Amino acid sequence: MEEVGTGLLDRLDAMQRVAASAPGGPLLIVAGPGTGKTRTLTHRIAYLCAELNVFPEQCLAITFTRRAAEELRHRLDGLLGPVAEDVTVGTFHSLGLTILRENTQAAGLVEGFRIADDAERAAVRAEAGDDPARYTTLLRKQGLVDLDELLTLPVALLLQDRRLVDRYRERWRWIFVDEYQDVDAVQYELLRLLSPPDGNLCAIGDPDQAIYSFRGADVGYFLRFSQDFTDARLVRLNRNYRSSAPILAAAVQAIAPSSLVRGRRLDPARLDPEAPLVGRYAATSVADEADFVVRTVDELVGGLSHRSLDSGRIDGRSTTLSFSDIAVLYRTDSQAAPIVDALARANIPVQKRSHDRLRDRPGVTAIARELRHAPGVEGALPARVRLAGQVLADRFAIPTLDGSGGIRPEDVRTAVDLLTPLARRCGDDLEMFLSQLATGAEVDAIDPRAEAVTLLTLHAAKGLEFPVVFLVGVEDGLLPLRWPGAPTDEAAVAEERRLFFVGLTRAQDRLYVSHAARRFRHGSERDCRPSPFIDAVDPGLFERLGDSAGPRRPKDRQLRLI
Ligand code: ATP
Ligand code: MG
Description:
- Keywords: ATP-binding, DNA-binding, Helicase, Hydrolase, Isomerase, Nucleotide-binding.
- Its EC number is 5.6.2.4.
- 41% of the residues lie in helices and 15% in strands.
- By secondary structure, it is an alpha/beta fold.
- The strands form 6 sheets. A 7-stranded parallel sheet has the order 15-16-14-17-18-11-21. The protein has a 6-stranded parallel sheet with strand order 3-2-6-7-1-8. A two-stranded parallel ribbon has the order 4-5.
- Helix 13 (245-255) runs antiparallel to helix 21 (490-504).
- Adenosine-5'-triphosphate (ATP) is lined by residues 12-13, 16, 31, 33-39, 206, 209, 241-242, 463, 465, 505.
């Protein structure tokens, strides 16, 4: 545990300190990428608890993804020690679930209600026809709720019961929301119920990184925070600690035409005169682009460790790069395959986040069923999952003609391994574990420490940072993305530009953008032009990279082992 008190604020810059130590009342922190939003948010919670006698159990910290919530929890543990456990940290959905569990009857639900999975929803829908009232009745009869209802039911409940509103306001007197630019209408309504207009609501975000409007998020809520909450204090953080000066300059110019932040400024805290420009590669084809990535990865990882580039350090960071320092980002999932293949052919380890759902893997449903029906087993979930897996593996080891559904013992063992990280995250909360399975928890293949190049979509890369970033397929039609029937209005293009901005600002030390002259899209091979978004960036910030030598063969890693 770190030293709390003033020493704690010493780790922040002047503006971060102003934000972290601001008095109660509504507080909006408008902060660009890499300005230390999470750092500021966690330090504020720690400061309030350590200095202003706020009780950790009065604090509620909300984010949008499970991974972000875990990151918050982890950083709070580091700052506050064991009492951090008393802070409620979660996603909007987990908050809704908590409220429903505490008010099951009032919400018209049965004890032990669960979230319907796709199959259950489809069955109920088929039976109900197009009668929405009937749909809900049938769902309830089976003790089920829809995922959306984790938010709409608590809102309805609070709207009709002022005393309940007061109770929650009394409990969570301090509310913190990260990535506030991605709030949607129901989440916003829930927040307004949980926080009075003059409440201690701290919202942090960056309107220029709003990239989820296709899911109903509305950056308008961010922009009108001061109208909704009385005497809101506004703090801006402008110092970027993440990216080198050329990367940051390119990013700021790229967002300028669509920026939602008046006088957008991002000042580089890192001022290394030797920092490389942004690499730009014009590939002839998708295969050529993939070769470029392989070649450059190979040079960076194989080369930097024995060549003394930048005399071995960039702004105090070691330049000995490993595969885990490198990310390849793209607009659409379908762009990953050629790059994964090319990297794999060169024996470069890769990890790509899988969007497969855990519950679709063989053996997972059997374990979930076993856990649900295991009578009165208490204790930590990882152990319970192992135990259930053991029982099932033994049972399925003897082939039977009954309902084992073709599950093999090795499927069950694999399922146990896949479920263990989720079980660990849920502690001993079985209902949370089962709800997360039902709501589509993914087979999360990304391990930040794994010695592998990471491949991610731009959406999935939000909030992350890497020393080296490749942004591939920066072409008109891909970024901004266009498909038959896609909206082409200004707002849609602006959101695509924000995605480009998110991509550029993931990079710390080296950034490469590339585009191919031909690509297979919409059923045929087409000519492609570079993205118009590139035109907003001063050409002097780019270094054109080697079309001269043609594709060189990467050194063979296996041969080098001999
Ligand atoms: P994004 O908008 O991309 O989510 P962010 O605002 O959340 O960015 P962080 O990820 O919290 O930014 O911080 C970016 C990097 O800068 C991190 O590596 C963080 O440790 C570092 N950093 C932030 N503030 C400081 C500081 N005062 N001194 C040194 N490093 C800092
Ligand atoms: Mg962040």
